[in-house]
Amino acid sequence: SQNIYILAIESSCDDTAASVMLNGRILSNVVANQKIHEEYGGVVPELASRAHQQNIVPVVQQALKKAGVEKSQLNAIAFTRGPGLMGSLLVGTSFAKSLAYGLNIPLIDVNHMQAHILAHFIDEEDFNKPEFPFLAMTISGGHTQIVKVSNYFDMEVIGETIDDAVGEAYDKSGKILGLGYPAGPEIDKRAQQGNPKAFKFTKPKVDGLNFSFSGLKTAILYFIQKETKANPNFIEENLNDICASIQYTIIGILIDKLKLASKETGIKHIAIGGGVSANSGIRKALKDGEKKFGWTTYIPKFEYTTDNAAMIAIVGHLKFLEGEFSQNNVVASARLKL
Ligand code: KG4
Ligand code: ZN
């Protein structure tokens, strides 16, 4: 059978990424993080777009070189069409389009959220792929969704956030505590050294399988304002406990909804994806769910959790097999739905 080489490009937010895949296996996976946003405490769209323009050629060249693959060997170019920041998406879309046109090979547009889920189907040693149907919880700086996955391209969003994403809850809490951006990894690290029951934050009341995180952020802000009025050193003296308590609350919210989703659908195969799935608390809670609730859980390799192009490549590969190629007039779509 024919070898299928896919070059994939991801540029939806603040990471410029490229990956080369051969028959579902990753040959290279290159990500250029944009440090520029750290000093602003969040992603600045114009700066992101400009950095993508600078990074995209070297990142693609590096991905090809690492893979030991020539452009002439490629069978298709896959790219992130959306959702994401329009200026960022445009850079990847235009680049992918012109490259595919120049090489006279098909172009494959990919939905970023679908890619976070299908990352579980990248061919790897020692990694079990999920069985259909399964529930996928995508948790990142931009999204919080529970998706019922019946097949590769048969997905239904059964719950999502009505305001902030869970990664935003981490990053905004970190900002209140004076931590750098993004704060998720540091809160996670400190949480492991603190007491999760030191402080209590109430969980939001949201019906069904939807989430809400903006109230939690406000509760943390008021709590910190009140405590630092009484003791100006409150944060420094209690930082690990505060982080542990925030993490305990957030993980509780996520697991409550997963339990409900599993009960309502009768599905016990559960996968996570997106930047927050790197979190030690959610990984542990999921593993505990195997014993407590009879779940089978799927946790992606660390390099496939945060934004990357390997996950775009696997969707490109699966679509290639189906003959699902883009039209010449395909455009970036900031609010692309699953
Ligand atoms: O998927 P991702 O790289 O980009 C988006 O599509 O948003 O996710 C980035 C988010 C950030 O909010 C970051 O704080 C969070 O993932 N994050 C974490 C951890 N590692 C990254 N949150 C909690 N614990 C972590 N270990
Ligand atoms: Zn993402």
From TrEMBL:
Its EC number is 2.3.1.234. It is found in: Cytoplasm. Keywords: Acyltransferase, Cytoplasm, Iron, Metal-binding, Transferase, tRNA processing. Fe cation binds at H112, H116, D307. InterPro entries: ATPase_NBD, Gcp-like_dom, KAE1/TsaD, Peptidase_M22_CS, TsaD. Pfam families: TsaD. Binds 1 Fe(2+) ion per subunit. Residues 26-313 form the Gcp-like domain. Its cofactor is Fe(2+). It catalyses: L-threonylcarbamoyladenylate + adenosine(37) in tRNA = N(6)-L-threonylcarbamoyladenosine(37) in tRNA + AMP + H(+). Substrate binds at T138, I139, S140, G141, G142, D171, G184, D188, N279. PANTHER family: TRNA N6-ADENOSINE THREONYLCARBAMOYLTRANSFERASE, TRNA N6-ADENOSINE THREONYLCARBAMOYLTRANSFERASE, MITOCHONDRIAL. Required for the formation of a threonylcarbamoyl group on adenosine at position 37 (t(6)A37) in tRNAs that read codons beginning with adenine. Is involved in the transfer of the threonylcarbamoyl moiety of threonylcarbamoyl-AMP (TC-AMP) to the N6 group of A37, together with TsaE and TsaB. TsaD likely plays a direct catalytic role in this reaction. NCBIfam families: gcp_kae1, T6A_TsaD_YgjD. Belongs to the KAE1 / TsaD family. This is tRNA N6-adenosine threonylcarbamoyltransferase.
